Amino acid sequence: MRFLDRRDFLKQSAGLAGLIASGYFANDMLAQGTTPAGNAGGANERLNIAVIGVRGRGLDHIGGLAGRHNCRVTHICDVDSAVTAGAVARVQKGQGGEAPTVVTDMRRLFDNRDIHAVTIATPNHWHSLAGIWAMQAGKHVYVEKPVSHNVWEGRRLVEAARHYNKICQAGTQIRSNPGIRQAIEFIRSNELGACTIARGLCYKSRPTIGRCEGQQAPPRTMDYDLWCGPASNAPPRRNHPRNGTVHYDWHWIWEYGNGDLGNQGIHQMDVARWGLGKMELPRSVISIGGRFGYVDDGETPNTQFAVMDYGNAELFFEVRGLPTPAYRGATVGNVFHCANGYVAFTSYNTAVVFNNDNREMRRFTGNGDHYGNWVSAIRSGRREDLKGDVLEGHLSSALCHLANISHRLGRQVAFDRRNGVLGENREANETMTRMVDHLRTNNVAIDKVQLTVGRRFTINNQNENFGDDREANALVTREYRKGFVVPARF
Questions:
Q1: Under 8 Å between Cβ of 440 and 323
Q2: Rounded to an integer, what is the distance from CA 239 to the centroid of its chain?
Q3: Which of 14, 67, 423, 480 is deepest in the core (most CB within 10 A)?
C-alpha cells in the first residue's frame, strides 16, 4: 500500500476502530485519551509499570524500575513464554518477592486501568506502534532505541505523545549521564573553537550469524504472528546456534531491524546530533559500505559510513562489525572535531578534551539514571524535565533510517572504481580510505567484492522525506499488516 493510500484509508477510520470493536480498549478510555490511574504522578504515589519485551533490554528496565523510585513492575509481557521466567525472578528480586502478572499480548495491558506506565523493549518494528497504542490508552511510555523502524512512524509517535499529553522518554540513556551532558555543553560553548564535524563510531565486532537453507520454524514457545505484528508474517530464514531462528538476529534483517546503525549506533548518532545542536534532519545524506568478511543470512551492512550535510557542519557515522582498533581513543563513542582540538567520547559516561597537539586538556565523567529521570518527569507532568524526550529520539532515529535508505537504494561498485564517488570532500574521502584499510587488515579481498555506494539524497525537512522521489519515499514508511496499522493522525 502506498503512503497516500494508507493516509486516506486511515482518515476514514481504520486501525483504531478495529481495536475498539475487538474489545482491546475501553471506548471511554480512548475518547478521553487517559485513564484515572494513568494520571498518577504525585510524589508519594506508587507508579505501576508494565515492561513489554523481556529477553534483552527489558531485563535492564526491570532492574532500573522494580522496587526503585517508588515504582512497582506489576506486569511483564512477552510473546515467548520461554523468556519470562528469568524476568519474573528479576522482578521478585527487586520487589522483595512480589511477582508480576505475565501477559502475552501487550494490548491486554493497555486495557488495564491499574497500569500507569509501560516500557517497550520489543524488536524495532514494534516500537512506534506499541508506544502509540499505550499513549492512546492513557499510559506514559519509555521506548527503547531506535524509537521507530522507519521515519514516518517515528513522527507519528511524537504526535501521539503531544496529542495525548503523555510523558514519552526515548531509551537514549547516555543523555542522562552528567559527564556527557557537561561535555556537550563544553562543545556547544565554542570554548574549543567551532565544531565543524561530529563523528559517531560503532566499532563493535559482529561475527557471522551463519547461513541456513530456506525457511525455518519459529520457537514453539512463541506466538510468532504476534511477534511479527506490523511486519509481514513470513517464516524466518536464519538459524543461529545461540539465538535460534528469531531472537536477536532480527537486527540484521530489514523487515524487523535497522542494522547496527539503528541498534548500537543510534546512541552515538544521538550524541553527534546533540553536540551539533541540530533539531532537524540534514540537507543531504549518502551511505557507503556493505557486508564483508563472511557470507551469511544477514541483510544489513556490517561495514558502513554515512555523511550528513548540515550546511555549517557535517555529521559522519561509521559502523565496523569486523575487528578494528580505536579511532582517537573511541570505539563505541564519538569524536567532535573543533577548530582548536577535539573531544573524544570514550564511553557512555566519559569524554576527554584534547588540543591539536593531542594533549589532554580536560575530562568529563559521571553516571546518571535515565529511568529515574523518566519517573520524575511523569510525577512533575513536565516533558521539559525529560533528558531524552521522544522528539529527540525520533530525529536521531530518523538519521539512521535515512542513511540506511541511501544504502538500500545504492549501486554496486568495484573497489578500484571508488575514487570520485564522494567528490572533493576531504574528510569523507579520508574516512573511505580508513575503511578500505580496515577491510584489508581483516583479509577482505577487496578486488573480489563490491562496495555499495548509496544514492546521495536531498532531504525535504518539512515533510521528512525525499521530495518527489517515490522510490526513496516508499522506504520512509512501510506497508502495515491489518490490525497492526500505525495511525496517520490523532
A1: no
A2: 24
A3: 480
Q: Which residue has the cell 557537561?
A: 182
391-414: per-residue pLDDT in tens?
999 999 999 999 999 999 999 999
Burial (CB count within 10 angstroms: exposed 0-12, middle 13-18, buried 19+), residue 78: buried
The rounded distance, in Å, linking the Cα atoms of 413 and 449 is: 9
Would you state the cell numbers that stand for residue 368, as one nine-digit string?
Answer: 546518571
Where do the domains of the chain lie?
Answer: 11-174, 175-206+260-367+389-459
pTM: 0.92
Residue for grid cell 506486569: 75
Cα-based torsion angle of the residue sequence 219, 222, 225, 227 in order, rounded to the nearest 10 degrees: -100
CB 341 within 8 A of CB 356: yes
Q: What is the mean pLDDT of the chain?
A: 92
In this structure, the number of other CB atoms found within 10 A of the CB of residue 300 comes to 24
Beta bridge partners of 389: 169
**Integer Cα distance of 178 and 238 in angstroms:** 41
| Rounded Cα distance, 90 and 279, in Å | 38
Determine how many CB atoms are found less than 10 A away from the CB of residue 370.
21
Q: Domain 175-206+260-367+389-459 is of which CATH architecture? A: 2-Layer Sandwich (3.30)
Domain spanning 11-174: CATH 3.30.565.10: no
Give the Cα separation of 276 and 264 in Å (integer). Answer: 20
For residue 412, how far is the Cα from the chain centroid? Answer: 27
Helices and strands: H and E segment counts in the chain: 15, 17
Q: Which of 431, 456, 453 is nearest to 199 (CA)?
A: 431
- Residue 43 — pLDDT band, cuts 50, 70, 90? low
User: Count of residues for the chain?
Assistant: 490
Instruction: List, for residues 159-195, the tens digit of each pLDDT value.
Output: 999 999 999 999 999 999 999 999 999 999 999 999 9
